Structures are given as structure tokens and as C-alpha cells.
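Aim 2 progress update. The chain analyzed this quarter is reproduced below.
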Amino acid sequence: MMPYNSDQQIYEEITRPDSPVAKRLRISPPSPPPPPPPTSANNVNVDEDIEMQMLPEPAPQPPINPVPRAPVPRSNFNLKVYVGNPVNIFRVNRAIVCERSSFFAAACYGRFGQPQTTKVYIREIEPRIFNIILGYIYNNRFNEADHSIPDIGKVLEATDYLGIVYFRDRFLAQVWEQLQAIIDVRAIFIENWTERGRIARSFVRVLKPEYVTMLFTALYRTFYDESKVNMIVHEYLLTGGLEEWHTDPDFVAMLDANERLRSVIRQAWVGNGGEMIWSVNPAVDEDTHMSH
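Predicted C-alpha cells:
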């Protein structure tokens, strides 16, 4: 395919509704978000428990996760989960949440729980975020394009806290797919990609410094495998934009707060031919370099 020669062409190729690139980048209108958690008058009255509303069945997903669950009969909502502060109460199916979450399995069947456990308290997670996670637990559904960047970070950290082991890999598979689409676009727009890549980064969310900062912060806080962080850095490098983010204040602050993560990102960057630009403190770079 001949390279396109105008900024308008790159925009149209990425945003055209029937473009496979647009579909892979999830630029089309997102599906309706899950309903917000209902609230009761005083939030903690057991007589006014909140029953989890089932989300619609999603489209078939790749076999990276267990098979989606069928709707659960109301009589099987046999566990009350007290979430957030102030508290919202969710009624959930104990067997399903224990199967998907090591936290719930321990709370209900582990050393600090019994099979007859009927209440679990999770004050560390916002009810709104917990509602999103329940949608994933019941329906195997999470489309990152449906949610704000800060909420995605909260969901990543909350699923790690709850021990939902498949979620992060599924999410990263979505990020990976979008990065691959950008790399394919770069192959089409061979000429002047440095400038045109900036155009793509202006409206492709996964390339924005705010998104990248959220992603690497969440991966760092959840102690993700450094080799996989390395792979994600490599994909971002191939999009041609990673070198620009070191001037973004939030991204720099994230690196300054996570020296080990900065070292991982810097090594991946340098190992793929980039310059040593990832520290605002030359002494830190020198010390890190010497330690390896």
C-alpha cells in the first residue's frame, strides 16, 4: 500500500467507522456502561440490601478467561458484601465470586472464614468500582473504552486486591491489540511519522501520557511481572511516541516515585535503541546503571 501524504488521510484511516484500525483502537462509540450501584436511604440498613443488577450478556470473548456465567437466580444471592465508606451493600452469589476471587474464597472458606459466612466487608474499594468488577465476574465483560482513565487504574488495583487473576491479562490484551493497530498504521504512513504520530496521539487514548502514566502506575502497584512490563514498553516504543512522554510532568512524577519501574522502563527503552532520557536526576541514572 502506498503511504498516505496528508494529516487528513491518517485521521480518516484511523476514525473511519468501517476501518479495521478504528475497530481495533476502539474509537467507535463505546457500549453502554454498567448501571451505577443503587443506594439505600441509610446505606447500611440490612432490610434495604442492594441486589446486584445483572448486566446484559456480552459478545463472545477470546478464550483467555473462564466461560461467562448465565444469569443467577435471585434466591442464589446468598452473600452480602459491604463496600466502601459510606457503605453500600451488594448481594452476590457466594460460589461465583469465590470461584473468581481468591479474596472471597479466603473470606468465605479460608482460615478467617466459614462456609456459612454471609457477610464480607471491603472498605478499601469504591462501590462504583466494585460494581464494574461484578460485571466482569458475572458476565466476563470489561471494555476499557467504556471507562475513564482514572477508573481503569482503580479497577486494575481493585481486581489485584480481590485476587481476580485473569482480569489484568485480559485488560493488557486489549491494550496490546490497540498498540498493534497503531504500529500497523505507522507502517502505512511511512513518511513523516514523527509529526503524524503526534496527530494520532492527540485522539488515540491509549497513547496519551495520562493513559500511559495510569497504566504503568497500576502495573507497578500490583507487582506485575517485569518481563511483561518490558514487552508493553517495547510495543509503545514501536508506536514512535514513548520518547515524548518523559517531558510530561505526571509521567515524570510517576517515574520519580517508582525508581524500580523507572529502571525497568529505561532498560527496555535503551535496549531497543532509545537514548537514556528516563530520569530527571542524572545521579539516579548513573547509580541505576552501575547497579546493573
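The chain has two domains: 7-29+170-291, 46-142. The two ends are 44 Å apart (CA to CA). These observations will guide the mutagenesis experiments scheduled for the next reporting period.
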